[in-house]
Specification:
- By secondary structure, this protein is α+β, with helices and mostly antiparallel strands.
- The protein is 18% helix and 24% strand.
- The chain has three helices and five strands.
- The chain has a five-stranded antiparallel β-sheet, covered by helices on one side.
- The longest helix has 11 residues, at 122-132.
- It starts with a helix and ends in a 20-residue tail after the last helix.
- The relative contact order is 0.21.
Length: 152
C-alpha cells in the first residue's frame, strides 16, 4: 500500500484519467504501421505486481488487413479501459486496430468494429485513402466515436 501511494506521488500521471489529443483519422492511419480488423480469440493478464502495472495480452485472428502485414504482430496489448486509456478486449468480438507494434488504446482510435457489412463503407474508405490519399468522409459512419480532445 505504501508503495502504491509513493508511486502515485512520484508519478501523478498514474492516477489521472485518460486524456487523448485530438488527432484526425487520416493522421492516425498515416502514422500506423498496421491497420486491420481482427477477432479477439483469447485474453490473459500481462504483468505482475500492483494492479496499475498490469495489462491485457490478447491473441487474435486477422479478418482483413488494410495496411501492413499484421501477422507480424504476435499479440495485442492494452490496458483495462477507463483511466488507463486501455481498450477492453472482449473474446469473440471484432476490432479495428491501428498500431505500430501491437500496443493499442482508445487514443489510437482502435475500437470494436461492427463488421464490413455494417460499417457504412468505412473499411472501403480506409483502403481507398491508403491507396490514393482520397479524403475520408466519416459523417455517415455511425460506429466511429468522436474524439474532440476529450477525456475518457
Amino acid at each position: 500500500m505504501k508503495i502504491t501511494i509513493l508511486l502515485i506521488l512520484l508519478f501523478p500521471s498514474l492516477s489521472m484519467a485518460c486524456s487523448c489529443d485530438k488527432v484526425n483519422m487520416e493522421e492516425i492511419i498515416k502514422s500506423s504501421k498496421y491497420v486491420f480488423v481482427a477477432t479477439i480469440t483469447s485474453t490473459k493478464l500481462n504483468g505482475s505486481g500492483e494492479e496499475f502495472l498490469k495489462s491485457v495480452a490478447a491473441d487474435f485472428k486477422v479478418v482483413e488487413s488494410l495496411k501492413g502485414n499484421p501477422k507480424e504482430i504476435k499479440k495485442l496489448y492494452s490496458g483495462f479501459g477507463g483511466g488507463d486509456c486501455g481498450l477492453p478486449f472482449n473474446v469473440g468480438f471484432q476490432y479495428i486496430i491501428y498500431t505500430n507494434d501491437g500496443t493499442v488504446d482508445i487514443c489510437s482510435r482502435s475500437q470494436i468494429y461492427p463488421g464490413k457489412k455494417h460499417d457504412d463503407g468505412y473499411s472501403d474508405q480506409v483502403s481507398e485513402f491508403i491507396k490514393t490519399g482520397k479524403k475520408l468522409d466519416l459523417d455517415s459512419v455511425f460506429f466511429m466515436e468522436p474524439m474532440d480532445g476529450c477525456s475518457q
